[in-house]
Amino acid sequence: MVYFLFTLFIILLIFFWILNLIGLPGNWLIVILSLLWMLFGPEYYDTTWVTIAVLIGLATLGEAIEFGTSVVGTKKMGGSSRGATLSVIGSVIGGIAGAILGLPIPIPLVGSLIGSLLFASLGAFIGAFIGEKWIGKSNPDSVKISTAAFLGRLFGTLGKLIIGSTMVVVAIIANFI
Fold it and tell me: Checking CA distances to 73, which of 80, 100, 154, 177 falls within 20 to 30 Å?
């Protein structure tokens, strides 16, 4: 039973990590899962408050990276608040669509993961473009700002995924130390 629970714990950690691709707070779900594991999991495994604090710090860093690269990049190129807001909405919609549609890559889950990342970034581009056109910016300016939103979302999500994978490793290793 203990091995089943630990396997389920690892599967949920990985599932929550994947949720980062569609704009959901996967890293924070990793923190919550680890906290629940510490409080209610088998006594053989030893997640500590130090581990939880490290996971909270990493999750915060992941959010800062994602937010910083996406919104700040858009704003730095002269984007409006409306463009930044629609960029975030577009990236969530694109991420969900990409997870569903995926890409024709014959490796299980990889097509959906890459599709989700690319569609989320494309959604950020489209959302920012609509937002900038809505307030009357020219096509060249809207494209420049939308490209910054696309790249910001792409690199922000990649950064958050790297932080999330570190969190998964920390959460697993903490149970063996």
Answer: 100
**Look-up of token digits 């919609």:** 93
pTM equals: 0.78
In the chain, the N- to C-terminal Cα span, in Å, equals 21
Contacts (Cβ under 8 Å, ≥6 apart) of 174: 34, 46, 47, 48, 51
Give the per-residue pLDDT at 102. 66
Residues 110 and 118: beta-carbon distance below 8 Å:
no
Burial class (CB in 10 A: 0-12, 13-18, 19+), 75: middle
Residue 117: CB partners within 8 Å, gap ≥ 6? 21, 95, 98, 154, 157, 158
Give the model confidence (pLDDT) of 34-75 as tens digits: 999 888 877 767 778 999 999 999 999 998 888 778 777 778
What is the distance between the alpha carbons of residues 93 and 18, in angstroms, rounded to a whole number?
A: 16
8 Å CB contact between 125 and 23: no
Tell me if 37 sits within 8 A of 45, measured CB to CB: yes
Question: 54 by DSSP, 3-state: which?
Answer: helix
- Domain ranges across the chain: 2-173
Q: Would you state the pLDDT for residue 172?
A: 92
Tokens of 46: 């030893």
